[in-house]
Amino acid sequence: MERPFIVKPGDSISLNGVGKGCDLERTPEYTGAYRKKGETKKPLKKLNKQMLKLQELLYAENQHALLIILQGMDTCGKDGTIRKVMAGINVQGCDVVSFKVPSVDEVSRDFLWRAHKAVPQKGKIGIFNRSHYEDVLVVRVHDLVPKSVWKQRYQQINDFEKMLVENGTVVLKFFLHISKDEQKERLESRINDPSKHWKITEADIRERAYWDDYMQAYEAVLQKCSTDWAPWYIIPANKKWYRNLVITERIVKTLEGLDMKFPKPTSDVSILSVD
Ligand code: AMP
Ligand code: MG
Description:
The chain has helices spanning 2-5, 41-61, 78-85, 104-107, 113-118, 138-141, 147-166, 180-192, 202-208, 211-224, 240-256; strands at residues 65-72, 94-98, 125-129, 169-177, 232-236. By secondary structure, it is an alpha/beta fold. The protein has a 5-stranded parallel sheet, sandwiched between helices. The chain is globular. The chain starts with a helix and ends in a 19-residue tail after the last helix. The site of adenosine monophosphate has 9 residues, from α6.
């Protein structure tokens, strides 16, 4: 199911639902051949089982790391994806890192420093909940550094990711694409449900006013930083169940593509016996 979600270098991307580059498959409400939640349960369960086996192989072989980057607007479902997609896997082999407003320690280094420090070691899956891409998203939208600085970062990110890939890290990048209407519903449900109050801040409402600027910034990211070595995938994310299926499938296909093998035993197993 790689197509139609992968962004190929040179693709023109329009996230507002009109214009060149806006295929039906790239709209937030797309659900492929599925019509409702129940229909994806069975295939998702099967994929979760496959993922568990592949993760064990990744750990045993110890040759590759898998870095999964999740980006998207507030309420797009980054946390939910981590909960659901990773539900079946062994937590010992997986690290989740959330990128918040940089600390004093972090802003006094180059913007890639904190990302590089957090990449997974070989044998492991690392998930970035937000990432170094914030430095060309929120930073660009709010002019947190001059344009001359953030403009250079697209190339710097591509070079950084290339280096990671050349050193054994597989990089998958998912943009969780929700519509502005869907965000409104999700924000309202956070306001109306006391058990969700902890999830919402004034800042979330304030950021919504910059929706169009964010879409522009995301389009730039998708067009400039989807590379042969570290592609972006636009994930239709209005329907959580479809989002989970597409992402899990992509992770499974990627791990399968590594053609991993269990390492040879370190002892001659044929002569081992247990009393
Ligand atoms: P949340 O994901 O809801 O916990 O929010 C984290 C916040 O940190 C978001 O508003 C991000 O935009 C912000 N953030 C993450 N990285 C950066 C960055 N490099 N510069 C400024 N703000 C950032
Ligand atoms: Mg938030």
